[in-house]
Amino acid sequence: MDLPFATLALMVVVGAATGWLARHVASEPGFGPIGDSVAGLVGAFAGVGLARKLGMGADVATVAVVGTALVGAAIAVAGARHLAEVWASQVSPRADAEGRPLPPPETPAAAAHAPRCAPSEPADEGEKPLPWYYRNR
Q: Are the C-beta atoms of 40 and 11 separated by less than 8 Å?
């Protein structure tokens, strides 16, 4: 890009600020302050570069460059957050809330032949029953 240094610096500030602002506005946790700012930076440069390739007036006018950087950064941050949410929904949890590993999922054939056992009863009034993943081992 053959833009003046001040305009490039302004693009960096707009991209990083857009990522930072998305972190504080959105309800999802996102990628952290650095990851959101990097997504904003990438989007700002991609937005300005794409606008210039398409001939959309982001040549040297600072306002046009800032506007396209802002739109590009917002689209990149929103797209990155959406992709992260989709990818996270496809991953199955490997541990319970307390960090213990979950047992492997049962196949329908194995579940049909498994013996049915009653849940364990507490031996003493103050003793808690074992969690479901420690029973019948």
A: no
- Taking only the tens place, the pLDDT of each residue in 32-56 is 788 888 888 999 888 888 888 887 7
| CB 56, CB 40: distance < 8 Å | no
What is the gyration radius of the CA atoms in the chain, in angstroms?
Answer: 26
How do the domains of the chain map onto residue ranges?
5-89
Q: Check residue 125 and give its pLDDT.
A: 60
Which residue bears the tokens 């959105």? 26
**Which of the 8 DSSP states describes residue 136?**
T
* Per-residue model confidence as pLDDT tens digits over 49-88: 888 888 776 556 778 888 888 888 888 888 888 887 777 7
pTM, 2 dp = 0.59
DSSP annotation of 132: T
Which 8-state DSSP code applies to residue 31?
Answer: T
Question: 3-state SS string over 35-104?
Answer: HHHHHHHHHHHHHHHHHHHCCCCCCCCHHHHHHHHHHHHHHHHHHHHHHHHHHHHCCCCCECCCCCECCC
Q: At what angle do helices 32-53 and 62-89 cross, to 10 degrees?
A: 130
